[in-house]
Amino acid sequence: MRSAWLLSAGCVLWVCSLTAAIEPISTSIAVGMAAALTGFLAGYQNMFYYFNECCRPEWISYNKTGLKYDLDTKLYGQHVAGQVILKAVTGFMNNKKPKKPLVLSLHGWTGTGKNFVSQLLAENIYVKGMESSFVHLFTATAHFPHEIHIDTYKTQLQDWIRGNVSICPRSMFIFDEMDKMHPGLIDSIKPYLDFYDNLNGVSYREAIFIFLSNAGGENIVQVALDFWKDGKEREEIQLKHLETALSLSVFNNKNSGFWHTSLIDKNLVDFFVPFLPLEYKHIIQCGLAEMIAKGHSPDKEVVEKMAHDLNYFPKEERVFSMQGCKVIPSRLDFYI
Ligand SMILES: Nc1ncnc2c1ncn2[C@@H]1O[C@H](COP(=O)(O)OP(=O)(O)OP(=O)(O)O)[C@@H](O)[C@H]1O
Ligand SMILES: [Mg+2]
């Protein structure tokens, strides 16, 4: 990650040193020569921008149509999450002067598409998608595994966020396994999510923070199950049916990192995004998409065989997939 930071800094510094280098050329040398040199340098600079990722519109620009298309065609069974994300992100990206960074909290059962949506988002804002040096993914158990080092983690994380946002205000920070994050660590990033004009000269208002967790997943499942039991269509589920249960459950759940913090208390999270548990038909869709991704022609029979062998709940009715679409890439290989 550090190298990405240095590279981005290099991008800025290179431009600065070039400007400094041409300043002494100020005497009566032919204006034409200066113009030619400037033209040459501008061309060179453009080439630099072209080949090296910079914090500029050539590399960072929001593609609303692309995001809508991806959410509509690639994300299965998540009509609520899709709508909320599109509205939230479009509103934020179109706002020339946001008052605070965008903070999204994605919740739901395993394998329902939380990381996948983050990836779609990154791909429709940054040319390099998740590979962009302006997109930062932290996984609680991988990056902050030892409670004993919490103070070091806090300093490192704050330095990392401050350093990267000062290089590129439109930075994206994704925190995976948020429910496993130490509450102190969540607390340490709180100032960056708030309504400050700037903190020590750095403004965080263009940044995007995305929190992913399974917290509240069971409550979401319960709502989906109730709808199913009442014979209602899944598509009838709206945000309002899930919102209250979700935020309260997250807030009251002792196992959830949110519980200890004032993230919710202080309204720092702009949108709680619920991910519904996936059904058999969505597993089929994921399976077919995965076959294409693996370079095979989609074969419904093969995918159905695989989907049939997965686990579903409730046990009798087999409505929702236990693992969502997460195990499909590995499982599919056994059936092809
Ligand atoms: N709703 C979905 N629509 C399309 N593909 C999906 C969906 N959910 C999951 N997938 C597929 O399954 C893979 C794994 O899903 P993902 O990592 O996004 O799950 P998750 O919600 O983050 O799960 P966990 O809570 O276990 O981290 C994705 O990369 C994607 O290929
Ligand atoms: Mg995940």
From TrEMBL:
Residues covered by the Torsin-1A C-terminal domain: 278-335
Keywords attached to this entry: ATP-binding, Endoplasmic reticulum, Glycoprotein, Nucleotide-binding, Signal
UniProt-recorded Gene Ontology molecular function terms: ATP binding; ATP hydrolysis activity; kinesin binding
Main location: endoplasmic reticulum
Subcellular location: Endoplasmic reticulum lumen
Cellular component, GO annotation: cytosol; endoplasmic reticulum lumen; nuclear envelope
Position of the signal peptide: 1-21
Annotated positions binding ATP: G108, W109, T110, G111, T112, G113, K114, N115
Domain of life, per lineage: Eukaryota
Family per similarity comment: Belongs to the ClpA/ClpB family. Torsin subfamily.
Name of the molecule in the record: Torsin
Lineage of the organism: Eukaryota, Metazoa, Chordata, Craniata, Vertebrata
